[in-house]
């Protein structure tokens, strides 16, 4: 028992390397927050383009979504980080080499493009879930397109999209560990460095627990947001529980109520 407790609570390890772990955690949080925020901003115009009646625009957006959702994120990261070096003269001539020579910026760029494709499809599905009859009723009441979107379409679509967006955030948190492969000192990258110097396997346990704490925190926050936003629907149903995606089968690694 003493050996197990010593493995789980290695005070000397945390005292010596704790600051390096916190530094790696900061890099991970920055990558996740920046890429998911930029991806969210990019996903809305992508969603509109996907729903556009312009066939060329719609098919181009579909091709973008198909590529980034159908290929491994690690491959995309390699294409950005190592591929940029292959076209260095061009990037230098247009003044972008300063951006693509940094592993941190390359990771942000690749993760943003990847999560934007997923978030755009989540939004498209959420918008498609809103009954056309409600939009026709809003037009009959004389609501403008903005008011119809603001008061009828998006409140319902956002509830449907909320849980999948949370799942996407959790996926990006776990996928951020891939950045260690391109020499970025994120949480996993720092963990590998510490293990190479100490050969103490407990450092990987601490790394896993930190990832677990982040994903569990997001899950609880998202559940609280969903309960707050759907409270009126629960009251309208006589106090019954409401889940926007109750009809969707649970999948591994998703946010559960």
Q: Which helices and strands appear, and what pairs or packs with what?
A:
Blueprint: H1 2-8, H2 11-50, H3 55-70, H4 73-86, H5 88-93, H6 97-100, H7 103-128, H8 132-140, H9 145-175, H10 187-198, H11 202-229, H12 231-236
Helix pairs in contact: 2-3, 2-7, 2-10, 3-7, 4-7, 7-9, 8-9, 9-11
Full CATH superfamily name: MetI-like
Q: Give the rounded overall mean pLDDT.
A: 86
Strand portion? under 5%
**Count of DSSP E strands?**
0
Number of domains: 1
Radius of gyration: 22 Å
Low-confidence stretches: 240-252
Distance between the termini: 35 Å
Main sheet properties: none
CATH topology category name: MetI-like fold
The second-level CATH architecture is Orthogonal Bundle
The assigned structural class equals mainly alpha
Task: Note the overall shape.
Answer: flat
Helix count from the secondary structure assignment = 12
Q: Which CATH class is shown?
A: Mainly Alpha
Order of helices and strands: HHHHHHHHHHHH
Proportion of residues in helical segments? over 70%
Brief synopsis:
With 257 residues, the chain is mainly α.
Overview of the structural elements:
The protein has 257 residues and is an all-alpha fold. The protein has one domain: MetI-like (MetI-like fold), CATH 1.10.3720. The protein is 77% helix and 0% strand. The protein is built from twelve helices and no strands. Helix 2 crosses helix 7 and helix 2 packs antiparallel against helix 10. It starts with a helix and ends in a 21-residue tail after the last helix. About 5% of the residues have low confidence.
